[in-house]
Amino acid sequence: MAIKLRVSQLQGLCDEAPYTQGGTTQHARVYVAKRMVSPRVIGARSLTREIHDKGLQQLSGQLSFEARPTDGQDPRCTPTPATADHQTRFAVLLENLGDLESWKGNPEKSSAYLGKVLQLYQEQADTKGIASVLRKQTVATDRISDYVKLRTIATTALEHCRALKDALGIAEASFYLGFSVDALGARDKALPILHESLEIRRTHGDEVGVVQCLERIGDIQRRKGEKRVVLSILDEAVAIASRSGDRLGLVLALHI
């Protein structure tokens, strides 16, 4: 029954599917199925791995749509200026390849590409490049649920973004740091970190990021038994996600 309910809720999420050159409708189906019936989304509902796999199969078979442009969590090729030298073009290529391999589910290849480009940026003392790669590494590490490593990388990324006074970089790194700290069992320490990310994203009008933070904060408060707080967070998250057209955020908020 729970799986059928999720399928009906998720039928309209076709716009979240990634657009990739040469991609197919089947690729898009599997993409949405994996994102929507992920352990992070439904793990708190005590569903077993068997139910998770059945839900994934059901969604893969039932969803039907064409691939669309990506959202902020999916790989995007960073444009390279036409005047860029060979070294710069090579670094950007490696960075994009690392991001793509992470999204495709190839953590070893992703780690190799991102590690190489990080070394190049360090040799060039390219602080913005270093921060960019570290942010991509946090996302890649989150995808494989290695929370100890995620905490380490997110901490380093946060330090670099603070040095650059990159507000949105600080917000993203703070989110992943807070998420990893919570996943490692220190939810009270995670809350102020997530709230910092939330406030920055509010200030900069990043509504997708706001919903992302609210979903995490709401989930922590739910586990703490703060029902009134959770309802308030849920109302705000649903309102923002609905207004901004963030369908993925809406579904995540409804799982708080």
UniProtKB/TrEMBL annotation:
The lineage of its organism: Eukaryota, Fungi, Dikarya, Basidiomycota, Agaricomycotina. It comes from Tulasnella calospora MUT 4182. InterPro entries: TPR-like_helical_dom_sf. This is MalT-like TPR region domain-containing protein.
